[in-house]
Amino acid sequence: MGTDRETGPRVLREDEWDRWYDALYRSFGAGPAPAEERALDRSVTEFDRSLAVWDGDAVVGTAGAFSFRMTVPGGAAVPTAGVTMVGVVATHRRRGVLTSMMRRQLDDVRALGEPLAVLTASEPAIYGRFGYGAATFRVGAEIDTSRVTLDVPAGTDEVRLRYAEPADVLDACEAVYAALVPGRPGMLARRPGWERAGLLDPESRREGGSALRCVVAERDGRTSGYVRFHTRGAWNESGADGTVHLRALAALDPVTEAALWRFLFGIDLMTTVSVRSRPVDDAWRYLVSDTRRCKPRLGDDAYVRLVDVGPALSARTYQVPVDVVFEVADAFCPWNAGRWRLTGDAKGASCERTADAADLALSVRELGAAYLGGVSLLSLAAAGRVRELRPGALAEASSAFGSAVAPWLPHGF
Fold this sequence. Notes:
Elements: E1 10-11, H1 17-27, H2 35-44, E2 51-55, E3 58-71, E4 77-88, H3 97-111, E5 116-120, E6 133-134, E7 137-144, E8 160-164, H4 170-180, E9 188-189, E10 213-219, E11 222-232, E12 235-236, E13 239-240, E14 242-251, H5 254-265, E15 270-278, H6 284-287, E16 297-300, E17 302-306, H7 309-315, E18 322-329, E19 338-344, E20 349-353, E21 360-363, H8 364-370, H9 377-382, E22 386-388, H10 393-401
Parallel strand pairs: 4-5, 14-15, 18-21
Antiparallel strand pairs: 1-2, 2-3, 3-4, 3-9, 5-17, 6-17, 7-15, 7-16, 8-10, 10-11, 11-14, 12-13, 18-19, 19-20, 21-22
């Protein structure tokens, strides 16, 4: 038991987890977690990466990290700290508790040799001061399937679809997910145990609907995709008015993807498909007959922090050849501050310290936003966040940093 007042964060012991987890939920103003969610969270907790701030024997601050590998442009899987479970109880706000945890955590991440950290922000205004930039975005929608149709590619009718218990086909579904990870920046290679997160099905996650359902797609004798969803029946004076709530959808090819979306659109007695988090370039947006009746909405998702600028920029590739010197500002992690020369192309890259004159000036927050290729340096410059010091350098670097597909974080943590 922690009985002495702590002056800073320390690593969590296993016998302290329940108090730590309860303090986290208290800081979010939430009630107790469902039992199955609590059990899963404990099973995936990395205790040596979990921090607690104590006031006497009470936990007043929590922060943790998961050891992920995240896909970056070029397909490499880069060691990444998945920042999680960050909270400060209401009685101890504005006392430097959060700053102390972020300080300790980033020092630890650097010591572990992870060049990147990523998080999803409950309050986006918080993490910019610690160097995190909004790097991926997600699309949600409320698709009126009573009036919106799909124009599917040839061969869609050849895809076999079947219902299955989610747990019974978990391995096949995970194989589909794993095959997709290298192809999209921002996707996470799941560590053992994380596959169970997609099967969590407490009442609170069902949005008033059914238990979790799963349909798998088979093509050429193999599982080529899957969809997990809930259905919620409803009626109005005109008849059936139910909603399909999409939880996850993955497919190895466009034909399978179209077949899964067509299935969702065609479930009896349902008139809406509710989508929470899909890539901004997701296929359904180009299959539908009427985008406006889908009510698409854009939201921020993953915030990326370059913990070590040199290794991070060296780990990805670049769409066109680039040779540019960045003047990087980083007050919170001063080891990143200064000038860095990035040279690279579609085959590889190198980023080293230099004394050469800078071509572009920006903060590490903007580098994080642009890192996965979903936010252009030109856009950041238009907002005054990047300064061009050598004419032509901005367009060169912005083109190089792009990604052929939109980055996307497929699930939270």
